[in-house]
Write a structure and sequence with these properties.
By secondary structure, the protein is α+β, with helices and mostly antiparallel strands. Among the domains are: 9-126, no CATH class; 132-221 and 246-340, no CATH class; 415-448 and 688-809, no CATH class. Strands 12-15-16-19-18-17 form a six-stranded antiparallel barrel. It is globular, with a radius of gyration of 35 Å. The relative contact order is 0.08. InterPro entries: HET (IPR010730), HetReg/Transcr_Mod (IPR052895).
Length: 809
């Protein structure tokens, strides 16, 4: 049996193997390999192999330096293919070139893998054995690959709203369809046109194998293996093998990028004759988002590749895991080499540590960075785990994230909510005391204790990959439960509740204001005449310097009175603004539906009302009627309600492809039927709760009475924590994020004035932090005035809720 000799760590040694050539006499002879030690510093020419280990049961024996050695079947199939191709270069293969049973060697060799793949002349990628479908796809890639590279197809991005290529493509195809010679020789336009006319892309399976073959290639286990991230990203050149066929990795990438672009960038709707293009791929477009290829493009552009960008996944897996590893620790260790030292998060591979320790250290490092690039990460991302887990509650099971995604609503990640707005970290946080090991220390403040929880509804999943596509099983039962839990009246308030009365009151108020204004003007005139007479009498009685002093005192008194009147007017204006805002936010019924909608205009993904515009009473009445499943009389709709139904930034465009083709009556019938179902789906795995102080919110279905609603530093959502015991130092476990109506925009941190105290609102003043939060904000922040009612004292501020540091286990 072959055994590994020790490597010289001081020389940065690695092992390389070389295939013995096949003989005509025995083409099926056992795989034979020659193995040698070399130093990475010697500039030896070699290639590296990238493949999937696969099932290691029933291994196959090969000869290494004339001694038997067992390898996995997928690796054996790849070596047979390389031998048939006559590949005789030195190869680095991890399963053979690292002594896998030696933990110490494995740790430092894994730490060198960045250099191994970066310095390799070529990377040979083995996708696995061929199928009839995959052969059709490989032939297609071989025919289109070189042209795709030449025309710059790899740079196409269907998600770029500033897409500079779309018009070039449209111009070329439009002129071509008109029967004229193209005005310009656009390689890209010609390429996309030929792609649109490719027979296999217009003919779905089973009549043609091409589209099924593309699915086959993209669903291979290879793209799931987390190790390939750095192997593909760092490769100078790479060739992809599938069965007996091969294509360059860049040609593969460029061609499939063009296919994805053609499907997703709006080309097909512009040219209906190509409606059949890629029909079997429409539901598989997420397969085209291959993380390793994205990382390769970033590396080539000299851009950093934050580790959070790779492991943090908000979306469902596309019919296969996002990433996976046989050893959970490799989810972290495999990525450390993809960047330089600055992106390693201070970690090194160490296989003597448990996966719990590795996941905890990695999560803490990513939390401190807030994610990376365009991928935010915070405690919001950590969903409560189902069942017992050895991991701390604040640490995601990254294995499960790779398989299914984070399991949180990605639209909530983009929400404009800021319950901790302006909150600065407490001093202990500034010193970096964030806990260690499996304990996370996080500053924040307590909001309230949960006292009641609504029984969660049931959701259904079509497949194991449809975590975010879970559908509420009985939307009507769910809506009835909401009304009952909230204690709302059985009958709704109707479309015109408060609208006509408000108009009438407004008119009466206007008349009263006019009458009062006339009386005030008369009174002011009378008062002015009296003052003039008094002043004349005083002028006759006073003489010389005494007269001047009296006049000066009167002027000072008048100025003081004017300042006090201005301050009173400002306070009255601010009170009116607060009353108006309170009226816009609505009553108890509005609180419930606002919570279900997460304060979004469409209840799905559009901006929050608080950051956009607040709903008026008529819109709130319509929403209440819709979610109570009550009849909507078209003739009773107000203009504002009709505008809400037809609004392009309302819910309707999220529910149907072409709402403009529907009449208002059809839209009014469609919206109540479909919108509650979609909003119910968006509330997946959440339920309503009440708190002791009267707050209502929505949190993970695991929340229960006794849980604590908190606002934590830098979190965009309130976080629910569960006390681990009665003792003050028992700590907490994380129970997910929540929406809590009335605290989502920093309101809770702002303390209103106490009775009898004079306060003045300031605009944009910020916060100081010395163990407590001292709040002065434009929304609800107040600042103490001096006792005589003069200018505010800049040294005194109203204290907000007390800060503490929560220990989360």
């Amino acid at each position: 049996m072959f055994t590994h000799d020790a490597l010289d760590r001081s020389r940065r040694e690695i092992r390389l193997v070389r295939l013995a050539p096949v003989t005509l006499a025995d083409p099926k002879a056992a795989i034979a390999l020659e193995l040698q030690h070399v130093s990475l510093d010697d500039g030896v020419a070699y290639a590296a192999m990238s493949y999937v280990w696969g099932d290691q049961r029933n291994p196959v024996e090969v000869d290494i330096n004339n001694k038997p050695f067992s390898i996995g079947r997928n690796l054996h199939a790849g070596l047979e293919r390389f031998r048939e191709q006559g590949i005789d270069s030195w190869l680095w293969i991890d399963a053979i070139c690292i002594q896998q049973s030696n933990t110490d060697e494995k740790s430092w060799q894994v730490d060198q893998m960045r250099d191994v793949y970066r310095l390799a002349d070529h990377v040979q990628i083995w996708l696995g054995p061929a199928t009839v479908d995959s052969d059709a796809a490989m032939d297609f890639l071989a025919r289109f690959g070189a042209r795709a590279l030449a025309c710059g197809a790899m740079d196409l991005n269907a998600m770029d709203y500033r897409d500079p290529h779309k018009q070039e493509i449209y111009d070329y195809i439009d002129v071509y369809k008109a029967g004229n010679a193209p005005l310009t020789d656009s390689q890209l336009g010609r390429f996309i046109l030929d792609l649109l006319n490719e027979e296999g892309m217009l003919t779905p399976p089973p009549q043609n194998n091409l589209q099924a073959g593309i699915q086959d290639l993209l669903q291979r286990d290879y793209w799931v293996r987390v190790w390939i991230m750095q192997e593909v990203a760092l490769a100078k050149e790479a060739t992809l093998f599938c069965g007996s066929k091969s294509v360059s990795l860049d040609a593969f990438d460029a061609t499939l990028t063009a296919v994805w672009y053609t499907l997703a960038a709006g080309v097909i709707p512009r040219y209906p004759e190509y409606d059949g293009f890629g029909t079997a791929l429409w539901s598989w477009t997420m397969l085209f988002r291959v993380k390793a290829l994205v990382a390769r493009r970033q590396h080539r552009a000299g851009e950093p590749i934050p580790l959070a960008q790779i492991v943090v996944e908000y979306l469902d897996a596309p019919g296969r895991p996002h990433y996976a590893a046989t050893d959970p620790r490799d989810i972290v260790y495999s990525l450390l080499g993809i960047n330089g030292e600055e992106e390693r998060l201070g970690m090194r591979p160490d296989y003597s540590r448990s996966f719990v320790d590795v996941f905890a250290e990695f999560t803490r490092a990513v939390l401190e960075r807030g994610g990376g690039g365009t991928t935010p990460f915070s405690l919001f991302c950590v969903a409560p785990k189902a069942g017992a887990s050895p991991l701390p509650s604040w640490v995601p099971d990254w294995t499960d994230v790779g398989r299914h995604g984070l399991g949180v609503n990605p639209h909530d990640a983009l929400a404009s909510t800021q319950p901790a707005a302006w909150m600065e970290p407490w001093e202990v946080w500034k010193r970096g005391d964030v806990g260690s090991g499996t304990v996370l220390r996080h500053p924040g403040c307590r909001v309230d204790t949960i006292t009641e929880v609504m029984t969660p509804p049931e959701w259904t999943h079509a497949t194991e990959w449809d975590v975010l596509n879970a559908k509420i099983k009985d939307v009507d039962a769910w809506l009835r439960s909401i009304v009952e839990f909230a204690g709302l009246p059985r009958e709704g308030r109707g479309l015109r509740w408060g609208v006509e009365d408000a108009d009438k009151q407004g008119k009466e108020g206007d008349e009263e204001d006019l009458d009062g204004g006339e009386e005030n003007e008369t009174g002011d005139e009378e008062k002015g005449d009296e003052e003039e007479e008094n002043e004349k009498d005083e002028e006759n009685e006073e003489e010389g310097d005494e007269q001047d002093e009296d006049e000066q005192e009167e002027e000072e008194e008048e100025e003081d009175e004017e300042e006090e009147e201005e301050e009173e007017e400002e306070e009255e204006d601010e009170e009116e603004e607060d009353e108006e805002e309170e009226d816009q936010r609505g009553d108890e019924e509005d609180r419930i539906w606002r919570t279900i909608l997460r304060d979004r205009r469409d209840g799905i993904r559009l901006e929050n009302f608080r950051s956009g515009r607040l709903m008026n009473k008529e819109e709130r009445n319509l929403i209440s009627t819709i979610f109570r499943r009550e009849h909507i009389d078209l003739d009773s709709l107000t203009q504002a309600q009709a505008d809400f139904v037809t609004d392009r930034r309302g819910p309707l465009p999220q529910l149907c492809a072409d709402p403009g083709s529907m009449t208002l009556a059809e839209q009014v019938a469609f919206l109540p039927r479909e919108w509650p179902q979609r909003v119910g789906n968006e509330n997946r795995h959440t339920t309503l709760f009440k708190t002791a102080g009267g707050f209502i919110g929505a949190g993970h279905e695991s929340v229960r009475p006794g849980d604590l609603v908190t606002i934590l530093h830098q979190e965009k959502h309130p976080i629910v924590l569960r006390p681990r015991g009665q003792a003050a130092d028992a700590g907490f476990t994380l129970q997910g994020y929540a929406y809590v109506d009335g605290i989502m925009y920093g309101e809770f941190l702002c303390t209103p004035p106490e009775p009898g105290q004079k306060f003045k609102k300031l605009k944009g003043t910020g916060i100081n932090s010395v163990g407590e939060y001292w709040i002065t904000r434009d929304q609800k922040g107040y600042k103490r005035t001096s006792e005589d009612g003069g200018e505010p004292d800049p040294g005194k501020r109203v204290p907000g809720p007390k800060c503490e540091v929560f220990e989360i286990y």
